[in-house]
Write a structure and sequence with these properties.
The complex is a heterodimer of chains A (360) and B (295). Chain A is α+β, with helices and mostly antiparallel strands. Chain A folds into 2 domains: 2-230, P-loop containing nucleotide triphosphate hydrolases (Rossmann fold, 3-Layer(aba) Sandwich); 237-359, OB fold (Dihydrolipoamide Acetyltransferase, E2P). In chain A, 26% of the residues lie in helices and 34% in strands. Chain A has 9 helices and 19 strands. Chain A has helices at residues 40-48, 90-101, 105-118, 134-148, 164-181, 192-198, 216-221, 226-231, 352-359; strands spanning 2-11, 14-24, 29-33, 55-60, 63-64, 75-78, 152-156, 184-189, 201-206, 209-215, 238-245, 248-250, 256-258, 269-275, 290-301, 305-312, 315-322, 332-337, 343-346. In chain A, the strands form 4 sheets. A 6-stranded mixed sheet of chain A has the order 6-7-8-3-9-10, with helices on both faces. In chain A, helix 2 (90-101) crosses helix 3 (105-118) and helix 2 (90-101) runs parallel beside helix 4. The longest helix of chain A is centred in the middle third of the chain and has 18 residues, at 164-181. The termini of chain B are far apart. Chain B has one domain: MetI-like (MetI-like fold), CATH 1.10.3720. Chain B is mainly α and 295 residues long. In chain B, a hairpin with a 3-residue loop joins strand 1 (37-40) and strand 2 (44-47). The chains are: A alpha+beta (360), B mainly alpha (295). Chain A binds chain B through residues 45, 48, 50, 70-71, 75-77, 79, 81, 83, 85-89, 91-92, 96-97, 100-101, 104-105, 108-109, 125-128, 144, 148, and chain B through 179, 181-182, 184-185, 187-191, 199-200, 202-204, 206, 285-293, 295. Chain B: Residues 66-277 form the ABC transmembrane type-1 domain.
């Protein structure tokens, strides 16, 4: 188990990580999700012990490890770049953590071959990393982490430099392989889709602060605040400004949207509705859907999906529709939204659900 | 589709052809021409066949100069390469120290050869030179004009002073190109300082080291100006390297034929050694460590 308690990290007086508290269980898969520069790598370095936090504590199995050198910790890490010993063969690369640990003879061979087999590296054991493809190089790095049998396994965007197909393959395998080892498994990514595919638990990171931590699907469906919802949305979350009065929300052009029973209990005032791109429709899907006027900015077709960027009531939105929809740029069209897909946030970005939990 | 062939394109190549002809091919052919003839005054030439070559290859004077040159080159490689790597490893990777170190390192490289020679010639003099005077005053008998060992030491130290910087700069360039993540990964692995050097830094410096060794070998094998200024090839013939010998022969004695033959042999020796270094080091870099499962 790894626990961060109110960990902050300042570099030259600038706060990179602000008050991060996390509790990661052994044998769990944890995703650190956040855009570039959100502090994922810094958090990982703090977890590993490569850096010392400015304040706060890092506990491993309840024992305070803050400031203990990384050499004395039980950590394995895989990077976005493919890091292997350039002059050693794949075999020796995988064996290197065992040799440092002083494992002897036949046991080394057994473990190396087992890891190589899992990572499908057996045919390449005698090659040096530079004579391998990117995917095989990264597999070597992962096999090294695997063979170490570390208590904490950190993966910093390990698949970002791989092509699409390899990425899918490895993404399936990684959680399975490491969940068996009983390690605390931490996986940093910038891609919401990757977090959803990995499952497990997700911590969304925004400007060096954990905005939410919980089961991946739960964080995705019930974000506590608008920042979490935005971090966990790709393409970006659509946002609609609303004014609540009585049992209704009103848009800036006067369109009325009825509030749900729960939302009716919210005090009157300004709100923001967040909804995902696949919930912005170009055609009416249900009787309750509300029509809004919009102008098309850009229309992109990726084969099986169409992304239509529109401006609607001074908001820039993206609609994601299946199939091919040719929409002319600059055309004035009608778009449809359904209040049942709305995530309601107050002016400060707190979700309606979390507000009501506080009021209750 | 047919490939378009336009013969007029050859005209575009002509300027370069002329340039290369005048700077390289014609002088080289002149040398080849001399190497097979004997010349007297009045532009009279007589064909002598391979006589100059057989003379040269059996000449003790040539053998001695060649051996001296080889000893010199290998000595300075043995000193400059490890020293250069060592200094590069000690140089800071970031901060204000980087430009300071780089400028300090680049300074010797900016000094012209004959100036370096003059500096050390004066520096080493037993009567007025700082180094020479100091060494003699602490009881070391140092006089490079009389003692061959002192002359050799001076020439080698001078070359190390002048050219280690080049090795340092090349190695440093190799070192800073190693991503930080390698060092991090090594720390996480618990690798020792030596392991980091042996398994990360050295392999990553391999290609720049190859260049450093080749450059330093070729250059030291052709060394002329500095020992010429400091020792003039002496005392006796003790620091007469191939190039000094060659100049003595060609200009001092005006033996154009033997000198031309020597130039060609000299050139081929450098080519041969450079090729050997290149091949050996390239193979060493691609060497696989195969102790898989043998323990």
């Amino acid at each position: 188990m790894l626990e961060l308690k109110h960990v902050s990290k300042h570099v030259d007086g600038v706060g990179h990580i602000r008050d991060v508290s996390l509790r990661l269980e052994s044998g769990s898969l944890n995703v650190l999700l956040g855009p570039t520069l959100s502090g994922k790598t810094t958090v990982m370095r703090l977890m590993a012990g490569l850096d010392k936090p400015t304040s706060g504590q890092v506990l491993v199995n309840g024992q305070d490890m803050t400031g203990v050198s990384v050499r004395k910790r039980d950590v394995a890490m895989v990077y976005q770049q493919f890091i292997n010993y350039p002059a050693l063969t794949v075999y020796e690369n995988i064996a290197s953590p065992l040799r440092v640990a002083g494992v002897k003879g036949a046991e080394v061979d057994k473990q190396v071959r087992k890891a190589a087999d899992l990572m499908k590296l057996t045919p390449y054991l005698e090659r040096t990393p530079l004579n391998l493809s990117g995917g095989q190089q990264q597999r070597t790095a992962i096999a090294r982490a695997l063979v170490k049998g570390a208590h904490l396994v950190l993966m910093d965007e390990p698949l970002a430099n791989l092509d699409y197909k390899l990425r899918e393959e490895l993404r399936d395998e990684l959680p399975k392989i490491f969940s068996e080892s009983g390690a605390v498994f931490v996986y940093a990514t910038t891609e919401p889709t990757e977090a959803l595919l990995l499952g497990g638990r997700t911590a969304t990171l925004h400007e060096g602060h954990i905005s939410q931590f919980g089961d991946t699907l739960d964080v995705y469906r019930n974000p506590q605040d608008i920042i979490t919802a935005q971090t966990f949305s790709d393409p970006p979350l659509n946002i609609l400004g609303l004014t609540k009065k009585g049992g209704e929300f009103r848009t800036s052009n006067g369109t009325l949207i009825p509030a749900s029973e729960e939302e009716k209990r919210l005090p009157d005032g300004h709100y923001k509705a967040g909804f995902r791109p696949h919930h912005l429709y170009l055609h009416r899907q249900s009787a309750e859907a509300v029509s809004l006027p919009a102008k098309v900015d850009v229309s992109e077709i990726t084969g099986s999906e169409s992304f239509v960027h529109v401006t609607c009531l001074n908001h820039r939105w993206v609609a994601l529709e299946h199939g091919i929809h040719n929409v002319e740029v600059d055309a004035e069209i009608e778009v449809f939204v359904d209040a049942k897909n709305f995530m309601i946030f107050d002016d400060e970005g707190r979700s309606a659900a979390s507000l009501m939990a506080v009021n209750a | 589709m047919e490939k378009t062939i336009n013969n007029r394109a050859w005209f575009m190549v002509l300027p370069v052809l002329f340039l290369v002809a005048f700077t390289a091919v014609i002088p080289l052919m002149t040398v080849v021409n001399y190497a097979f003839q004997d010349s007297f005054g009045n532009n009279q030439f007589f064909w002598v066949g391979t006589e100059w070559f057989t003379d040269l290859l059996s000449s003790e004077r040539f053998h001695d100069a060649l051996v001296r040159n080889l000893i010199f080159s290998f000595s300075i490689l043995a000193i400059e390469i490890p020293l250069g790597i060592g200094i590069a490893l000690c140089m800071p990777k970031k901060g204000w120290g980087v430009p300071v170190c780089l400028v300090l390192m680049a300074l010797p490289l900016l000094v012209p050869w004959n100036v370096v020679g003059t500096i050390w010639q004066v520096f080493g003099r037993a009567d007025i030179g700082l180094l020479g005077y100091f060494l003699n005053s602490i009881g070391i008998n140092y006089n490079y004009t009389q003692d061959p060992v002192a002359a050799w030491a001076t020439v080698i130290v001078m070359d190390v002073w002048h050219w280690t910087s080049l090795v340092v700069l090349l190695c440093y360039a190799g070192l800073v190109s190693i991503p930080e993540a390698y060092y991090q990964a090594a720390r996480i692995d618990g690798a020792s300082r030596w392991a980091v050097f042996r398994f990360i830094q050295l392999p990553k410096m391999h290609s720049v080291l190859l260049i450093a060794v080749l450059l330093r070998f070729m250059d030291s094998f052709m060394i002329y100006t500095e020992p010429f200024v400091v020792t003039g090839g002496g005392p006796g013939n003790s620091t007469t390297f191939l190039s000094i010998d060659l100049v003595k022969m060609a200009i001092g004695q005006f033996d154009l034929g033997p000198a031309a033959a020597m130039s060609l042999v000299y050139f081929l020796i450098i080519l041969l050694f450079s090729w050997v270094f290149y091949t050996v080091m390239n193979n060493a870099g691609g060497e696989k460590q195969q102790y898989a499962g043998e323990e």
